[in-house]
Target: Abasic site processing protein
Amino acid sequence: MRQQLSFWGDWTRNKAGEPASVIRRTGDDIELVELRWGLKPRCPEDRPAINIRSEGRHFPSHRCLVPASEFFFSTGSGAQRTRWKFSLADGDSFYFAGIWRPASEDWPESYAVLTIAANPDVAPYSGRQMVVMRREDRMDWLDPTRPEEELLRPLPAGSFRVQRER
Model:
């Protein structure tokens, strides 16, 4: 899978503030662009918003997809810290649902990933997770006429393979 995604870069190794490949709709076209990960904070002393809670919010425009093959969560701390890798159980790649914002005078075009309550596979490691869109559902997120409540849902139990990294 990673070979297939190399065209887009390796999102799973990106850090906040770094550019990543993002898919978005512009009019009737779909384009692949590089955007900075992290929306401009409201206060200069705050960190950029890399994740946005999706519950109760509407995103009628500026929807985007971030190609990925895995994501990580850590549990514990210090010597007891364990890193967990999550990928789709069927080995397929997927997309994170996100939103993007145009550039301003002092901030480049950027994006954030939407989050939801964790599905049963992720819940033992984190109470929240990024919204994962399967390949067959990805274009639905880019359709602004599709309601958020139909799309921003956790995948069913058994959807993720969980592996201990360290």
User: Anything to note?
Assistant: The mean pLDDT is 90. The two ends are 22 Å apart (CA to CA). The first strand starts at residue 19 and ends at 26.
